[in-house]
Structures are given as C-alpha cells and as structure tokens.
Amino acid sequence: MKAYISKKANNNLRKYLDDLGYTPVSVATEGIVYDAVSCHPDIFMCKLGAGDDAPIVFAEEKEIGYEYPGDIAFNAACTGKYFIHNLKYTNPRLLKKARELGMTLVNVRQGYSKCSIVIIDEKSIITYDKGIAKSCAQYEDLAVLLVEPGHCVLESFDTGFLGGCSGRACNKVIFNGNLESHPDFEKIKAFIESRGLECVWFSEFKLTDIGSIIIEQ
Q: What would the mean pLDDT of 5-26 be, rounded to a whole number?
C-alpha cells in the first residue's frame, strides 16, 4: 500500500505511515504548477472515495495548468458518494469517471475543493468554506462540520487549508502537525470519533498544508 505525500512532509508523519504498513511516496515536480503547490498530491491526483481501496485518477502533465484555474482540474473532494468541485474546471476524464461510478456531483465555487475539505467518510466532511457548506446542505445525508478558516501553514501564503493538512488511512483521519493548535480542535476530534474513526495528529510540529495524504491500496 502506498501513501502519496509531499516531499516536504514531516519525517514523523512518514514514519507513522510506514509503521502502519504504507509506503510513503514523495511527490515532487518542477515547472508544472507554481512552487507552493508543486509537491502537493491533491493537485496531481484525485481519490474517488474515503476508503483505502477507492480508485485514484492520476493527472497527465498536459492536463494541468501552471496556475489557477489550470492547476485545480484534479483538486476535487470525493467521499465515495459525493464528488465536490467547481465543475466548470474539473478535468473531463475525471468527471467521466465520477459519473461512471454513480457519484453525486456537487458544484461549488471553491476550485481548491480538496484543499478545503477534510474527508471523513462517505457522508461526512469538515470544511472552513461557508460556500462549500451551503452547497452541501441540500443533501440531508451529508454531514458537514464548519470550522474556522486558517490556523495552518502553507509555504509562501498567509495561511493554508485544513483539508490539505489531512488524509484518511484505514480507520484513521491523520493531520500533518499539531491539530491542537486549531481553535476548533475539540469539535474536529469529536466529529471524527463520532464516526467510529481515530483522529491522529503530531503535536511536535506545526499544522501544515502539504496537499493532502492520499492512500492507494
């Protein structure tokens, strides 16, 4: 099993994933997209579900643009049942796969949808984005925890996105850094645990957006 993570991911996260039985695979590119996201897995691949065995669609270099909106073509957030993205900019091949799988398409204004959403399970997400929360509210079985924006690091920017700090592996929702530093820590932890999942974080380094942790079985 593989865990796609940024080449800049903390070594403590790498060791944790390795101990769980996942082989960390570093993502590193140059010249395809702007530097701040050039190592972010969720720019170059999209996982179509929450579980380890969910399929992944990998981008080809020619399908990615250097900056917005070209760089968001694969940055959809997918629970398995729901496909959440700014559908105007979704890569056609990815959108076709989502339709083939019978996923419900949810159109949002936020192009960096995966960066903005923590995938919990098929019917549960966490986001700071009020527009995403509003669009998802029309689906009664889709639970959304709305949290404060910011409070995480992203190189070259004032703040990062919580979704980009996270990843689902087996029965764990893992955060790259100190989740306790987030003002909604207790709500986030309780929301995840109420779904029968374990919330994992690393107090020894800052909560940092690394473009998600994407597991391939």
A: 97
